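By convention, the token line describes the chain's fold. To illustrate:
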Amino acid sequence: MVRAAVLIVFLLSFAGHGCSQRYNAIYSFGDSISDTGNLCAGSGGCPSWDNTGKPPYGNTHFGRPTGRCTDGRVVVDFLAERFGLPLLPPSKASGGDFKKGANMAIIGATAMDFDFFKSRGLGASVWNDGSLGTQIQWFQQLMPSICGTGCKSYFSNSLFIVGEFGGNDYNAALFTPGKGMAEARSYVPQVVDRITTGVETLIGLGAVDVVVPGVLPIGCFPVYLTLYPSSNKDDYDEIGCLRSFNSLSSYHNELLKQALSGLRSKHAGVRLMYADFYAQVTDMVRSPETFGLEYGLRVCCGAGGEGPYNYNNGANCGTAGASACGDPEKYLAWDGVHLTDAAYGSIAGGWLDGTYCSPGILH
């Protein structure tokens, strides 16, 4: 835990200091953990059902909703700031300049394509066509405006963030009546294979420095803790998280690390970095104060103090009946599914200095 404490000092020195690594751009792929506004970038703005387009989303840092699923910035925003780059525009933003970065991530994204879920009777639980394969297509459509015919050279000096992917793939089974954990576990290898294939595609396009995050410890998230409570104390680990859900996350992450090891042996000139969301978030739950926080499992924007986690699936953040805390900088969890600006800032620090990324981005 002493190593983790260094993150606080590290974050205070984000601005104004030189670093050992420079990038001309950052290109990001993922889901709601890293979306910077793609769902809301269309001509109609945010869909009416999308609460992230309503206050108090965005209030801490931007003073308004931006389509990010948090009170402020996400990890890729902090990385862009660290390297002196503009915040990544969503790739769907009309008239955007993507030479210094673009974010293909979109809320609800999966690794697998829609047909995969449809074939398993899970199509009703997947509402977004922004799978990893689709996001790579979006990126390829942007390439001529970014780098013309010199993309391999340009991308060799860019940072790529691929994920996390997998959370929504597993939610499709976990939130479908009659399916559940066994179904989700059965296709983990296919999800990891799809992520690996996506990474290889980007390497083929010229990516050299690639961060691939694992999935988060979903058993520590208030939405699962509230929807799947247990009267059996053995179903919870020592920090109050659901063992079976975290076991699913761990299974995914172990297979992903093995796959990345294989990719490293195939692509000797490529820097593949595994970002350990799981280890850092569990450490933040176990010892929030080490990261400058006070609350690990309790939601900031939630149901007015209801239950042990301040979460009610019928009164989600941004809707009537929900309210935000006045001190989000003390919370790990923002809305029960996503983290706070403060938490994402700490996570970015752990990726940069290598505490929770192997190797660290700055190493």
Q: What stands out?
A: Residues 1-19 have pLDDT under 50 and may be disordered.
